[in-house]
Amino acid sequence: MSSFPSVFREVYGSHPFHLLTLTAGFALFTYVLVTVGPAQLWNPTTWWQSIAVWFAAAIVAHDLVLFPVYSLVDRFLVAARRHRRATTTSRVPLINYVRVPLMGAALTLVVFLPGIIEQGASNFHAATGLTQAPYLGRWLLLTAALFGASAVAYGVRVARAAAKPTAASRSAS
């Protein structure tokens, strides 16, 4: 007798959690649409400031620009890993120690880009009495901290791997 998940996967094509996640996402979208209202998503006076336009542009920008860029960077890292593995005896892969801080830096750049490029500086100053000048420096410090923490974690992992004897050295003794 087959279990429910295996029968469900055969009929649906994926795990039941996939359907649950999709249903929850569509329910959240419907809730936001009903709460906010479709009229709030479109600005008829200046169409380019509409949420719907920015959402569509973000999807297009991600799929046509960002995805190919970070896929290319990832392929470069994987190729560098293969090359490094062929030339060295290190047992610790570097790839995730570059991926994680790079993704963190990219995400914070996207989130804080208006502040970093000082978009709306007069409105920001009028509302807070502050300038947006520190945004770039703070983002650079955060990026350096992410890569620094990753480098320290990588160094610790390499040191621990070097301290452990390999299977070949254990069998030789």
UniProtKB/TrEMBL annotation:
Q: Where are the transmembrane segments?
A: 20-39, 51-73, 94-117, 137-156
**Which UniProt keywords are listed?**
Membrane, Transmembrane, Transmembrane helix
Protein name, as recorded: Transmembrane protein
Note the superkingdom of the native organism: Bacteria
